[in-house]
Amino acid sequence: PPPAAGSRYTIKASTSEDEPFEIALKVEGMMCDGCATSVTEALLAATSAVKDVRVDLDTKKVSVFVTCETMMDGLGMMPTLVDAVVNAGFKAEPDF
């Protein structure tokens, strides 16, 4: 499901095993749909746990939905996700 508008939670606990955690990133340097596609493809390729990526060009926020056993496992993926975006040519950091 899409994140709630104005949500301040970086990672949401899933209510079922099928529902992924949301990890929020702030990505600088995205200007167009091509940038959004590059970021999305980099994140999807970063780890098989990534199930969906949503990019908001206006706010420079990227929501990455991952499947994981625990919230800590989700947090543990943060460096991999940030590195994937950086390697795609953008500045990225966790959005807490």
Summarize the topology.
Elements lengths: L20 E8 L4 H14 L3 E7 L4 E6 L4 H6 L1 H10 L3 E4 L2
In short:
This protein has 96 residues and is of the alpha+beta class. It contains three helices and four strands; from the N terminus they run βαββααβ.
Describe the overall structure:
The chain has 96 residues and is of the alpha+beta class. The protein is built from three helices and four strands; from the N terminus they run βαββααβ. The protein has helices at 33-46, 71-76, 78-87; strands at residues 21-28, 50-56, 61-66, 91-94. A four-stranded antiparallel β-sheet has the order 2-3-1-4. A hairpin with a 4-residue loop joins strand 2 (50-56) and strand 3 (61-66). The radius of gyration is 12 Å and the shape is globular. The two termini are 20 Å apart.
| Multimeric organization | single chain
Which percent band covers the strand fraction?
25-35%
Largest sheet: 4 strands, antiparallel
Shape call = globular
Q: Can you write the helix and strand succession as a string? A: EHEEHHE
Number of strands: 4
Can you give the helix content as a percent range? Answer: 25-40%
Spatial order of strands in the largest sheet: 2-3-1-4
Mean pLDDT: 86
Detail the poorly predicted runs.
1-10
State the distance separating the first and last CA atoms.
20 Å
Computed structural class: alpha+beta
By DSSP (H or I, 4+ residues per run), the number of helices equals: 3
Rounded Rg: 12 Å
